[in-house]
Amino acid sequence: MEKENKAKEGIKGWINPAKYGKFGIERFAWILMRITGLGLLAYFIGHIYETSHILDGKAVWDASLEMTQTTEGHIFLAIVIGMCVYHTGNGIRLMLGQMGYGLGKPGRPDYPYKPKSLNMKGKACIYATIGVAALAMWYGMAVMFG
Amino acid sequence: MSELNQEISQEKSQTVLSPTKSVKLRISRSNPEVNSEERFDEFVIPVEKYTTVLDAILNVKSHLDHSVAVRYSCRQASCGSCGMKINGKPALACFTKVVELNTDTITVEPMDNFPIVRDLAVNFTRMFNNHKKIMPYVVREDSEIKPDTGVKEILQTPEDVDKYIQFSSCIKCGLCNSACPTMAMDTSFVGPQALAQAYRYIADTRDKGKDNRLKIIDDSHGIWRCHFAGSCSQVCPKGVDPAMGIQLLRSYLLGLRD
Ligand code: SF4
Ligand code: FES
User: Is the ipTM of this structure higher than 0.90?
Assistant: First the structure.
């Protein structure tokens, strides 16, 4: 029996930038969903840790709040805003797809076999979600940097 | 007539077919039986308007290096044997014309997410096992046509057929499984090929195996591992659109269709 050589690509199959040119915006939306999901999970854990300082008294709580009042803190929060908006918007698109909406109807395929599920409506939603996330980040920065 | 004869004799004498254009073909060479090394052998191959990547590889086998391992059969995108990565993207070698690639260097590699047998040939055992697992046939008690018992052909309207016909075009080439980012991490994932076939039979009005099939795919390595990256549909050479089938299949599990 041959060895299981190269039986799976592993993490390379996720992060290889060459994939995104070849597999289209849907694949890019997918990796962005993963990254923002992991980012939000890390933020959630950090956020629970940070807010737990409230039990250590006012001084410690104030000091931990101060961390977000720096330039780096503002940029970090703007990234969190972007991640939240993208993950929510793209999540809604995916949920609608999983419920069978926006995929087109199955039918006899005709050459050159353009996949109906990767249609312009879906692509427009991805671009719009990225745009709205960027806009939200920009607005958040404008507020935080005054 | 004499012109034709001349052409045939020219071919026999191995004259370069098209002196106007040639490409560099880089072929991945490896043999996991021996060691884990991979190297690329380079060949300069003459090409014409309709030369396919498979033609170019067979040219290498005929004239330059017979030891290149490649699987093929029909040469017309029907058997599903010749899937490989062509310039990084999974495609059928017999269905990809060299000139369409718009490059003078073509790199061919074995498909990702499959164990390599040798060079460009990969092992399909796991994909075929997953395919069998989802019961790829119409399940019903009275499927035999027995004129004496009164059991007749089961009629379907064109609309009934439209629900599954695109999914029945699958040639089991494995390109979708190779492109899928979930397959890249989880070798136990049932894969877009098998999931699309599960939908094909469930959507068939003659079939009664829906509940059993849904039980099989409602698993931690089953349908919920798909996150709709769409790469399967992007590379499918037959218009199956597995991503659509998978999403439609989910709506059965979510109770939105019956
Ligand atoms: S769904 Fe398409 S890409 Fe996948 S095995 Fe079938 S024909 Fe090949
Ligand atoms: S040789 Fe049969 S699909 Fe390419």
Answer: no
Question: What are residue B229's phi and psi, to 5 degrees?
Answer: -75, -20
Domain boundary among B122, B147, B170: B122
Per-domain boundaries in chain A: 10-145
| Digit-coded pLDDT (tens) for A104-132 | 999 998 888 999 999 999 999 999 999 99
DSSP A10-72: TTHHHH-THHHHHHHHHHHHHHHHHHHHHHHHHHHHHHHHHHGGGGG-HHHHHHHHHGGGSHH
CA distance B63 to B43: 10
The amino acid at residue A35 is I
Asked if A113 and B239 come within 8 Å (Cβ–Cβ), the reply is yes
Report the SS3 class of residue B84: strand
- The pTM score is 0.89
Contacts of B229 in chain A (CB under 8 A): 23, 26-27, 29-31
Residue B28 φ/ψ region, left for φ over 0, alpha for ψ in the -120 to 50 degree band, beta for the rest? beta
What is the Cα–Cα distance from B223 to B220, expressed in whole angstroms? 8
Residues of chain A with Cβ-Cβ distance to B235 below 8 Å are 23
The shares of helix, strand and coil residues in chain B, as percent rounded to the nearest 5, are: 40, 15, 50
CATH 1.20.1300.10 is held by the domain A10-145:
yes
